[in-house]
Amino acid sequence: MQNQAHPKATVIFLILLLGGVLFWTFSQWTNFSRPSMDLLLMQLEEGDVEDKLQALGVLSSQAFNKITPEHAKYKEHLLTALEKLLHHTNTGVRAGALYLLTALPWLEVRTLLNRYKQKLIEWLQNEDARLRRAAAAALAELGAKTQAGVEELLGALVDENPLVRSSAARALGRIGAEAERVVPALIAAIKDPNPMTRHAAICALGDFGQEAAAALPALAEVVRENSGQATVYAAQALGAIGVSSDLSLETLRRAAAAKEEELRRTAKEALRRLKAQP
Predict the structure, then answer these.
(1) Contact 197, 166 (CB under 8 A)
(2) Which of 60, 130, 176, 214 has the smallest number of Cβ neighbours within 10 A?
(3) Using an 8 Å Cβ cutoff, are 232 and 222 in contact?
């Protein structure tokens, strides 16, 4: 008499088989929907403009989320490919390469960008707003190491494109040079109609520390207006500037009693910073 499979065992087997099929299907779909680094690098090096822009977009989204071991394994290859793209005739491709470079955390990126410092300054006046913005972001990444391009960044601070203006403001704050010229320009940018530019200008003033003391009245006014996120950034900047003036202290004390929790917390932290000043 032949042995018959137990019905329960048969059900379990079918469930496991189905699970295996589903897992294989999902893994294949995942591998298809998430291109490998080899494929992306091939697109960067051999693809047309559309392929290059697509690969840069995928890599940028990954870089801003998390750098994986796979990225690190291809570091040298990727940086070589990106540097080559900085010479591409298409300005969108150059901008995309710069965006990706500024998203990567590797020390070698700064060394690479520093070699292109003069090019970055020139690109601040390019006809393509994408490249102007990317150049400003790259100069911001270089920060104090730049010590050049302030004149061009001041021009970019009044660019017709708000994304360029906000990137220029961040770069000026990170560079932290020529406060006597830059601080008044950033104070004026607090009134910019674009919120991103306003926020970037306020934060940049905080980067200048006590050299931005002339901005205290303008920043205090922003805090008193209680106009959303700009108010929080302005309270933070008052603490970062580090001048324990009556105006700053009184403004922050009032903000510390505000209804908004984030503003209260930020104002209290700024007050602690000011009270710790000698």
Answers:
(1) yes
(2) 214
(3) no
Contacts of 88 (CB under 8 A, 6+ apart): 52, 94, 97
pTM over 0.90: no
pLDDT of residue 230: 95
**What span, in angstroms and rounded, lies between the C-alpha atoms of 144 and 33?**
40
Integer angstrom CA distances of residue 5 from 14, 19, 49, 265: 12, 20, 60, 68
Q: Which tens digits make up the pLDDT trace of 223-272?
A: 998 878 999 999 999 999 999 999 999 999 999 999 999 999 999 999 99
Contact 253, 224 (CB under 8 A): no
Using the predicted structure, report yes or no on whether residue 198 has a pLDDT greater than 60: yes
What is the Cα–Cα distance from 93 to 80, expressed in whole angstroms? 15
Query: Which residues, 6 or more positions from 144, have their beta carbon under 8 angstroms from its beta carbon?
Result: 174, 175, 176, 177
